[in-house]
Amino acid sequence: MATGGAPFDALSSLDPETFAGESRAVINFLADYYRDVDTYPVQPQDLPGCLRALLPDAPPENGEPIDVILEEVRTHIVPALTHWQSPKFFGYFPMNASTAGFAGEMLSAGLNIVPFMRVASPAATELESAVVDWMGKLMGLPDRFLFSGGGGGGVLHGSTCEAVVCTLAAARDRALSRLGHEGILRLVVYASDQSHCTFQKGARIVGITRSNFRVIPTSASSGYGLTSDSVRDAVEADVASGLVPLYLCATVGTTGLGAVDPVRDLGELARRHSMWLHVDAAYAGSALICPEFQHHIDGAELADSVSMNPHKWFLTNMDCCCLWVASPAALTSALSTNPEYLSNVTDGGAGAGVVDYKDWQIALSRPFRAMKLWVVLRRYGGAGMRAYVRRHVEMAKWFEQELKADGRFEVVAPTRFSLVTFRLRPGHEGDGDAVDGLNRRLLVAMNASGRAFMTHFVVDGKFVIRMAVGGAMTEMRHVQDTWELVREKAEEVGALP
Amino acid sequence: MATGGAPFDALSSLDPETFAGESRAVINFLADYYRDVDTYPVQPQDLPGCLRALLPDAPPENGEPIDVILEEVRTHIVPALTHWQSPKFFGYFPMNASTAGFAGEMLSAGLNIVPFMRVASPAATELESAVVDWMGKLMGLPDRFLFSGGGGGGVLHGSTCEAVVCTLAAARDRALSRLGHEGILRLVVYASDQSHCTFQKGARIVGITRSNFRVIPTSASSGYGLTSDSVRDAVEADVASGLVPLYLCATVGTTGLGAVDPVRDLGELARRHSMWLHVDAAYAGSALICPEFQHHIDGAELADSVSMNPHKWFLTNMDCCCLWVASPAALTSALSTNPEYLSNVTDGGAGAGVVDYKDWQIALSRPFRAMKLWVVLRRYGGAGMRAYVRRHVEMAKWFEQELKADGRFEVVAPTRFSLVTFRLRPGHEGDGDAVDGLNRRLLVAMNASGRAFMTHFVVDGKFVIRMAVGGAMTEMRHVQDTWELVREKAEEVGALP
């Protein structure tokens, strides 16, 4: 029996019949999971260590059948998962799975090639170069970031964090080529109080002094976007003290509130001070495929790099991050290595113009991510993806309207994409702490119900609930049910009527 | 028709029937690929740009059926791939796929959770902590690297390069807490001329001055392993010039030749100079599950960190790297972040002792890699994996014996695991350059035949051919056929009879 407990044979691990039989068992398992996932509590209510206690201290000496393993996934692991694919998951940001994203991941994992250099699998490098150009065009990126445009190009990383480390290293080495290595002590990185923590972490990783990371405050008056005045003040103060502005982050769609920094203003400022400008559109980059959102990256031609994550809201299973740079040479001069065991003995004449992606990223080894994004784009098409994004934006707008129509709630930041940020308002009797406690209890009560999952943020000292719409299976009825849940739990925790 | 061209519906991308139907089509495609892969030339003989020319400049506006997409993979992409899963692929290092590794990857990609923190999916964090302990025990690692041992623990990264960057950042920040940030200019990293280039790249990424990376020479007399004398000389010279030894890399199974550095000697030296010792067993770590190989990591209790890649020779599809550290606090103090949007509002009392893996790696987002390694260990068991590794070691030994029995060849470094390094000997007439040219032509001729794929290395100025056995589908007959190929092509390129 194909899915049974045949004893392990070292030479049959890729036997086509065994492969097909056991893989079909997993496919059936996952189809059942998708059928049932909206009946599970979105977040499990377990205690730390509960699964660990069920696991033996050592692996089995003898192999076990796939059916036994799948049954254990069903009974022990699934109940202790947070279900990111539940249509009622509205926490953090969406992390889309889809049939096409999964198909692409299967092809990548099944072929299991390692395209670190073009010669290590030519089709993979060419597909990657093509597919990042496709994505860039869909998003309306300036030609300078495209291979087919003005000398730039893109690469697929696993995460924005990796893209940030690589661009920081590129910017740093470009600056140190003028300053000498001692200059590393004087380099300064700028972000807003709404920027993702990965910029702070990335700056530490590449050796920037912790005290040279500037967190520029934002406020409600600019919708929590940076203002170029505030950045300029910080930059000029640093220059006056002998420091060297290195890198500025502009975010289109911040994690906490979905805020947007003014790319053109920041780009002009960055140019004046020879800073590297990175545009982080990890989440909202997916919306940029719709023309009505493309004004949010107006001025991107002034940036040095742009990134977005198809694994968030673009139906591309984990993990996949697009990074585009205007100057590939800046990236590769920081990240290239040429050991003998990778030099190409059979292809000597073809070096010029060849993209070797190992020099565009941290790692040498890399999966065939281009396959995944290519299958998604082929299967769903530009029109399909725009329709997909717009449906979520409509759902979020509906939710925002309901909040506004109900006098007990306030919307904290404008809903620009599909993230709604809200809270119960202070009543005439309540002080700030009491209202924060009320909102905190509201979030806990909703998540404990298992009927939805949201996360929170704190801005201007206020506790804010985040409802991030964008799950692959999320339909209008799930958003409507969640609005019912919000009202029900608001009453339970004692919101004023 | 499940696999047909139904127009894309934004809300049906995870419809269970569509998912199952289209996924089965991909499984059938891959089963056919495994059935046929040994009939394909291992490396394609295309020219750069050949696939790119077939790809349109933009993605389709309307979605296309999965069958059309798979047919294009078959006709356009597969012929331009290097087939890493071919049983005749002997280049670089093996990158194993397997039915169980694929099943685990499918479960990970299908559930598509993001276990950056324990609370973001408790089962995933607990499974990861358990499975890295399992691997550590199989390899005979000292207890201090295990969660269940003496306060250490492990994490699954995507690549050794990432593990190296993280441990370098941890070592650097530990040192800078004494020295102040200016000390970064004085830190020195040590590796051998056989160490992987990732150490040099990683040191640059974390801000170590390029001139403070020491490449210690090795020689045939120590089998191309480091000697602690040579490292000590370099360290003492640096200390005498006011520099600060930071980090030393010991490799068990180098990329070029499979050499082994003396872990205990280097560990004692590292301790004396307060250096971080990392043991890189990326490839040979798989062999360490067999007791007969465990003497190669004798002294590992003196190391600060150890890494190995199950995605190489352990039937775990890309990507998966185990990193173990003796002091998780050293790692997390360099890599932790605690933004408000990740603070845990529902689980306030459970912080102590909870592992949040985002603080053990570069990225915030991360796939559920533990599922993959867990399925491999369950499906094949410790005994199955040892049998698997030993078969490849036997094949490599046979190949080495044949080379030795044929007077025209020399084996360059001892075959300790499953990597054989060899070359045609100089004839009485030939000088070094001529012999190098002969070996180079031999490698090109073998690879051009499509009947096998190997790569090369250069040591002591000599061109060396690398035959890395370890493919999941490689059987003895493939190694025997490859020996025939070597002899045939050696005659063709003019080796002396």
Automatic annotation (TrEMBL), chains A, B:
Family statement drawn from the similarity comment of this UniProt entry: Belongs to the group II decarboxylase family.
By its UniProt entry, which PANTHER family does this protein fall under? GROUP II PYRIDOXAL-5-PHOSPHATE DECARBOXYLASE (PTHR11999), OS10G0400500 PROTEIN (PTHR11999:SF148)
Keywords attached to this Swiss-Prot or TrEMBL record, sorted alphabetically, are: Decarboxylase, Lyase, Pyridoxal phosphate
Positions bearing N6-(pyridoxal phosphate)lysine: 312
Q: Name one GO cellular component term.
A: cytoplasm
Recall the taxonomic lineage recorded for the source organism.
Eukaryota, Viridiplantae, Streptophyta, Embryophyta, Tracheophyta
Identify this protein by name.
Answer: Tyrosine decarboxylase
Is the keyword Lyase in the record? Answer: yes
Q: Which organism is it from?
A: Triticum aestivum
Do you know which Pfam families this protein is assigned to? Pyridoxal_deC
InterPro entries with a match to the protein in the record: Aromatic_deC, PyrdxlP-dep_de-COase, PyrdxlP-dep_Trfase, PyrdxlP-dep_Trfase_major, PyrdxlP-dep_Trfase_small
Keyword Lyase among UniProt keywords: yes
